[in-house]
Amino acid sequence: MKRLAHLLLGLPVLLQLPGCERMMHNMYDQPRGNTYGTSSLFPDGAASRTPPAGSVAHARGARPGSSSGRLGADRAERRARDEAAQTQPYPIDMKLLARGQSRFSIYCLPCHSPVGDGDGRIVRRGFPSPPSYHSERLRKVHDRYIYDVISKGYGVMASYADRIAPADRWAIVAYVRALQISQHARVDRLPVDIQKKARHALSGAASLTENKQ
After folding, report:
1. What's the CATH architecture for 80-184?
2. Domain locations in the chain?
3. At 101, is the pLDDT very low, low, confident or very high (cuts 50, 70, 90)?
């Protein structure tokens, strides 16, 4: 009898629980104003608000969410072309290499190191070492392979497609190729003044080795 009384006392609470279920949906089903919809919250009756004076439109990606930040046909077509290219679509000049160095220093250098040998500061703190750009395998890969690794990631490396625009990915590819040449250049193909410095450095190193022996 006592147990039945407890059940009867708890019954009103159980009957009210379904009414609380809706409260649990507010995080993913929030009240909102639809685009171009009406709202009694504002004097003009419109749900959408006009951007504050001085707002600057910002476009990101081929389909930005704001109509005021559209890329425009020319930029969207160029982005599509860059994404579809199988080989370097830009002429290799100092402007492209400078841009590639800038983006490389921001996104790649911490792991790959300034010279691309995979001994960056993050690696020295315990992160897995990426392969060296100067390995035989990576010196032989196509430009598109490097572009795709930047875009899609590889191994423990995440995709950088959301942070690096296609044009900048190609600039990084050009800079990586320059790094590869820098570590595997033939001495006789260097400018004369640099050849002299290289030979002087090599002879000095050889003399130091002989003295130690």
Report:
1. Orthogonal Bundle (1.10)
2. 80-184
3. very high
